Every structure is written in structure tokens, then in C-alpha cells.
Amino acid sequence: MTRESSQINPQEAGNESQEKPKKFLFIDDSTDVLSGISALFDGNNDVGTTECHSLKDAREAIESARPEIIFLDHNFGENGGEGLEIAKEVRSKYPATKIYSTTTNSDVSAEYERLGISHMDKHDIAGFLSIISPDSN
Fold first, then answer.
1. Among 66, 71, 83, 119, which residue's Cβ finds the most Cβ atoms within 10 Å?
2. Domains detected in the chain
3. Neighbouring-strand partners of residue 87
4. CA–CA distance, 137 with 135 (Å, rounded to integer)
5. In the Cβ-directed half-sphere of 62, how many Cα atoms lie within 13 Å?
6. What is the H or E stretch that residue 52 is in?
7. What CA–CA distance (Å, rounded) separates 82 from 88?
8. Cβ neighbours of residue 30 closer than 8 Å, sequence gap 6 or more
9. Is the separation of the CB atoms in 90 and 62 below 8 Å?
10. Full-prediction pTM beyond 0.85?
11. Beta-sheet strand order (sheet of 118-119)
């Protein structure tokens, strides 16, 4: 299941000088985690978000939404380890996309680091906010 939330004001949609909203993709199997993270963006016109729970949905969202930043759980699918699979695909196809591993599985952190992917705690609200809006710190 994929859920998209673009927080763009319709009155500003035709304004060519308006910057496009930042695009974020959240991939996690926990609907509670995704709901909590999405709540951070309610009313934020600078951010468009997409949420995914499966490998298939994640691949489709990456192609259609072309996110600037991906927050990625490691075990979000049927087999486990799908996060690393997606990370490798994104690194290969869209190297400029920033990826943050939000897994609680510390055994795989070195594999993500080898791909140049930073880790952050998925429960760290201040961490998300600093990435979303670095000027607010």
C-alpha cells in the first residue's frame, strides 16, 4: 500500500517562482511509525511525502515520485532485508538521492555505511526535523 501526501497550496500551484516541495519517501512495515512520521508534515507546504509498506510499492514509488530523500527500514517485506536491496538499487540508478537507514537492526549498519547511507533512529523526531528543515536548528 502506498500513501501520498502532497501539502501544496492550490493558490500557489501556478506561481512559477514558487520552489517545488521536497519529496520524501518513507519505507517501513510499521503503520504506527509511518503515521507518526507523517504527522510531522501535516500543514507543511514545503514537503510532499509518500509512504510504502512493501517492496513492490517502494519500487513503484521510487520511479513515480523520484524522492529526494528516502527513509528506509531494513526488514519491511516478506523475506527480510528488503531495505538493503532497495538501497543498492537506488544507489545504482539515482546516486544523488539521499538515503537514511531507519532500521533497528544494528547487525546490518556496516552494510549500509559501505553504500554511504547514514543511520538514524526512526523514533528520533528531532533528527527527522533537522533533515527536513536544516535551517530550523
1. 83
2. 2-8+20-136 (3.40.50.2300)
3. none
4. 6
5. 27
6. strand 47-52
7. 10
8. 73
9. yes
10. no
11. 2-6, 47-52, 22-27, 69-72, 98-101, 118-119
- Cell numbers at 87, concatenated: 538501497
Any idea what DSSP says for residue 19? P
Nearest to 62 by CA among 73, 79, 50: 50
pLDDT at 41: 75
- The residue assigned the cell 531507519 is 102
pLDDT at 86: 93
Dig out the grid coordinates for 96 from the structure: 544523488
- The segments of the chain whose pLDDT lies below 50 read 6-17, 136-137
pLDDT of 111: 87
CB count within 10 Å of CB 48 equals 21
Burial of 11 (C-beta count, 10 Å sphere; 0-12/13-18/19+): exposed
Identity (one letter) of the amino acid at 125? Answer: I
